[in-house]
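2024-03-11 09:14:02 INFO worker-7 job=invfold-0412 stage=load source=structure_tokens
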């Protein structure tokens, strides 16, 4: 077959491209291949003549480098000749006249790891961002003093913000403390893989300090709203008792409804059932509101009689 020959006047030129990512350090005499649409570079010698036992992949779609494998070279054979065979890297070194030192690096496992590391790095950053947002919101709400409200209604609304935050804090505390431990382990693991985790490590330290501040502020915030808490708790308890009385009365009236009688007829019974259903849904909505208040004000057991009636 005929091949295209480059002529003197052909418009062909090389162009520099900007690359990003974990760029490999300078080296000579490295091994290079293509795999899964990426350019893979292994080993070689640094400018001081020391052997490099590392592997990088270049993605031509994004013009970015990523480190797939890196070690200190202690397991690398002396002055090896290396080459890729499918998804394995063979390094052969000879002592005296025989090439008796043959080592293999399972490239498939490294490929899986190279996909895992960036995903894990992104996940750590994402979880730290969510945790920081939760802590900032908690510290903001816990700094509220309900006594600053100009009226009892305003004081109640401020107290609800504080108490809701304290309730959420108690609910989430075990999970967040576990999450901090998991994130520390993840950052440590990624650092061992050669990933620069300075930013995430700083974010993790800040998250730990903020979480300590949240734990310290929660009881202070609870004490600050104590007077408003006692006043509003009495109101809510009275509302719950009144609701319970209305529910019991409704139960008695419900049993007297005409749709329980055959003489009422289907059309009339159907209309009464729809009306009664709407009334019961209003009771359900009020029950949910009061249960929420009772939970936030830490006396949920007061709602038990109302739930049993329904």
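2024-03-11 09:14:09 INFO worker-7 stage=emit residues=310
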């Amino acid at each position: 077959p005929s091949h295209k020959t480059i002529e003197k006047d052909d418009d062909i030129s090389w162009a520099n491209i900007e690359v990003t990512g974990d760029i490999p350090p300078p080296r000579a005499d490295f091994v290079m291949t293509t795999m899964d649409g990426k350019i893979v570079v292994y080993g070689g010698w640094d400018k001081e003549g020391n052997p490099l036992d590392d592997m990088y992949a270049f993605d031509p779609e994004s013009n970015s480098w990523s480190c797939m494998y890196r070690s200190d070279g202690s397991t690398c054979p002396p002055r090896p000749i290396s080459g890729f065979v499918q998804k394995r890297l063979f390094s052969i070194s000879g002592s005296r006249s025989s090439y008796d030192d043959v080592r293999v690096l399972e490239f498939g496992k490294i490929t899986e790891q190279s996909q895992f590391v960036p995903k894990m790095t992104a996940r750590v950053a994402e979880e730290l961002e969510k945790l920081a947002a939760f802590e900032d919101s908690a510290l903001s709400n816990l700094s509220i003093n309900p006594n600053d409200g100009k009226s009892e209604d305003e004081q109640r609304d401020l107290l609800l913000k504080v108490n809701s935050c304290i309730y959420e804090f108690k609910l989430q505390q075990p999970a967040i403390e576990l999450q901090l431990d998991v994130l520390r382990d993840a950052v440590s693991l990624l650092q061992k893989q050669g990933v620069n985790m300075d930013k995430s490590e700083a974010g993790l330290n800040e998250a730990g300090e903020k979480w300590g501040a949240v734990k310290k502020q929660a009881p202070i915030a609870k004490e600050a709203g104590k007077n408003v808490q006692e006043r509003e708790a009495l109101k809510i308890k009275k509302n719950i008792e009144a609701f319970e009385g209305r529910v019991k009365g409704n139960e008695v009236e419900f049993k007297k409804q005409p749709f329980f009688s055959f003489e009422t007829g289907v059309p009339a019974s159907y209309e009464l059932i729809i009306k009664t259903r709407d009334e019961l849904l209003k009771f359900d909505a009020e029950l949910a509101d009061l249960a929420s208040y009772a939970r936030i004000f830490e006396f949920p057991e007061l709602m038990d009689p109302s739930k049993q009636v329904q």
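2024-03-11 09:14:09 INFO worker-7 stage=report msg="The mean pLDDT is 84."
2024-03-11 09:14:10 INFO worker-7 job finished
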